Amino acid sequence: MKHAVQSLSKRAAAVLLAAALALPTAYASAGTRWLTSSQTLTDGLTYVNTITQHSSAGRVESYSFQLSPDSDVYPIMVQSSGTAYGAATINKAISYAESMGYNVIGGINSDFFGNGGVPLGISIEDGIYKSSPEGNNAVATVNGQVSLSVSPQVYITLTNQRDNSTVELTHFNKWRNSSGGLYLYNEDFSTISTQTNAAGGRMVRFEVVDNGKSTDLTVNSTLTLEVVDVFETSDAVPIGEDNYILTAAYESGFYEVFASYHVGDRVTLTTSCSDSVLSNAQWASGAGDIIVRNGAITDSSQWVYGKDGRNPRTALGVKADGTLVLYEVDGRQSGYSGGLSEKDLADELLQQGCQWAVNLDGGGSSILSARLPGSDSVDVQNSPSGGYPRSCATFILLVTDDPGTGPATRLALKEDGLVVLAGSSVTLGDVVSINDGVKTVNSRVSDAQFTSKNGLGSFNSSVYTAGAKGGTDTIEIYSPSLGLYGTAQIHVVTALSQLNVTKAGSSSSLTSLSMKAGDSVQLSATGTYWSRDALRSGSAASVTWSVSGGVGTITKDGLFTANGTSNSGTITVKAGGVTKNISVSLSNVHTDVTPDHWSYTAVEYCYEHGIVSGISPTEFGRDYSISRGDFVLMLYSALGRPAVTGQPTNFTDVASTDYYATAIAWASANGLVSGISATEFGPKTLVTREQAFTILHQAMPLLGITSPTPDLSVLDQFSDKDLIADYAKPHMAALVSQGVASGAGDTINPRGNLTRAEMAALLYRLLTYDETEQPEQPTVDPDATLTLDPTQSQLASAQSLQIQAVLTGAQGTVSWRSSDPTIAAVSSDGTVTNVYTGSGTAQVTITATLGSLSASAVFTCESAEQVGQVTAEPSLNVRSGPGTTYSIISSLTYGRRVVILDDSTDGWYQVLFSNGSGQAVTGYVSADYLTVT
Hints:
The chain is mainly β. Helix content is about 10%, strand content about 40%. The protein folds into 7 domains: about 10-75 and about 285-400, no CATH class; about 155-270, no CATH class; about 410-495, Immunoglobulin-like (Sandwich), CATH 2.60.40; about 500-585, Immunoglobulin-like (Sandwich); about 600-775, no CATH class; about 780-860, Immunoglobulin-like; about 865-930, SH3 type barrels (Roll), CATH 2.30.30. The protein has an 8-stranded antiparallel beta sheet with strand order 1-2-3-22-21-23-19-20, with helices on one face. The protein has an 8-stranded mixed beta sheet with strand order 11-10-17-15-14-16-13-12. It has a 5-stranded antiparallel beta sheet with strand order 4-26-5-24-25, covered by helices on one side.
């Protein structure tokens, strides 16, 4: 069917309508209009989605159709379940219409309803009268044009041909009330029964007499019926095909009416309606208040639903040119859509240009469905307030006689109406081709080309990059292979409503970060404009990252590295006029123990396991000597702070309130420590290395570590072995032979004070000790020898040479150490590398040991041609390759000198140095933080 107005071609009308919808609106009754997306579904039919801000309701979101009068699409009004009784969802209504042969493109809910889902107003389907208006307003489709009917009535007269007696009534296919009077039913009410369960009542059953005339009932028609039964019942009864049932509840009376009918009587059924709209309607539905008439808002004091407050709403309106507006606004969903009052609704429809408009059923019933390009089904577009599509009585559906089997006639963007922040980018996604029936012909057009018609952005293939100016950009789409065109909208915005920062790959919003010093995390910033995605991950050009508080550094792409000199600070992210602050707290902050220090792993372990804390928020105090009290406390913490049994210590210098009192009581009870006198423990006295080794060895059984009697000859490798006290020798020998303790160079320094770094290293080795991984004890004959080849050599800068260790009369793994790893580093296989950064030459002694055997070689190291000094504070990352995408393999502290191996890569130096374990490391550092000397 065609609508009446033909002043413009269909395609021209569609283009003008879409252009009008794209114009910015400063204010509408739904509030300030922030975003309007319009999409042409087929000639003359446009789908519109709008976000506004209402002064009282907050954010409001609406959905609508604009149907021009000359479109091949037209509205029909259907009962959702196919009968007056029994509400159903919009999907059921669509299936019902499709079963009648219609191609459904979209629809909304319409009439209010009562018990059993029976509509309150009229229902006409394809000209057939199916339910009475009951004086309610109605909307009707007459030859494709929607018209308004004000408080119509359809009268029914039953004339008994036997005696010309008449019965008049108006209730047709409505829910029977006990005091409602007479009701007439046919199977358009229910295919099951009269639904008068347990209510009782009087009934007359009529059967349609086939006299060669149409038996369809319209609002103005005459049928001949025959009485086939007169009865009373206490239950509902089936109606039956071509049957009518006249009924009334006992409470309503009418005994004489029912008694007047005899089986076999012929009765003339007459329907009459003086309303010209309904008399000519093919489709009709009941409606609520008339809120706009003759281009003005009506008297709201007469509205039935005017005092309902802000709610989801559904409405229908018609403009002066015949354009039909089907409007749905969501509500009752704080933060998403607050809904509108009926007055707001009237204002909105009036400002959209409607000459008349009616309020339809709202609340949880409000729904709008549409088949958008790329979809195979008619899908719900709005968000029903109940969380699901409610079953309703009637729906207005937009249909076309085009079955949708024809060729493609236009292109469309599957994700139309995208929003993008100025300066950022968005990938447009799939382009589809559709036909005039809004059915997808090609679900992915591979050769689609895009052009910005308004010049607000540019394209690189299907990636749109917005410029600096905001507005709605019309995108022209063209497929060379199909020869088809289409359009889409992209909204360029200059501000965000919300900015969200996450870890890359996560959807959880960040407000704070807790990290270990030295760790890195890739952050991602995304943002929305009135809940629509506008800033997408990876749009670095639109985001500004900064760090304050000295907690680390951050790149322009959001890669944060926690390497600062403070344990707390802030990451600040700015985009689209919105600022987001992420508070950063660093655990294990120890600026004095950098990743290249030999104790770094041990200190990290002790921090993570709560064994020790720093001497300040940013320092571990690696070189500080440790007191006896702190030493015992660290050991106690390492063993999990076990319960203390027995009596407290009676040391006069250990108060019960001292932080180390429990630890000393535990150590004393387990025989690990004794006092420096009969009455004093000496908690503040510094502990020596030999004392510490003794206590730790005695604690090994508590850790589940067995320790066989050691060979004291293992101490012969140390030049200061004679300084070891006799009581400490077996304990030191045990720790050395089991790989827990070691010396520095060729000394073990038994009488030196133990440092905090050394204590952390000892505890780490004990707590991670694995007997299965320990090397077998060497076998050494009394006359065994160990010799090296060569015993002396000279190395150029960065040159490496492997020393051959020759064993006679002994078996085992040889250990290697350098007297000064900053001059030459030695690996576990005896490879010596010159890492010297000084001037002239320098000598270093490389010592090999196996049990009591040892041998040395002297190397002379030449100076390097280029040496660099680190200027980054507090440290500089060393990477596996020349770029920030390469992994971090080590770090260098401020002032550290390194050998420069290669400076040919722009912005990067390849360097050589020895790490905290005395091993040679080759890597890359930024040239910005290295001064060449």
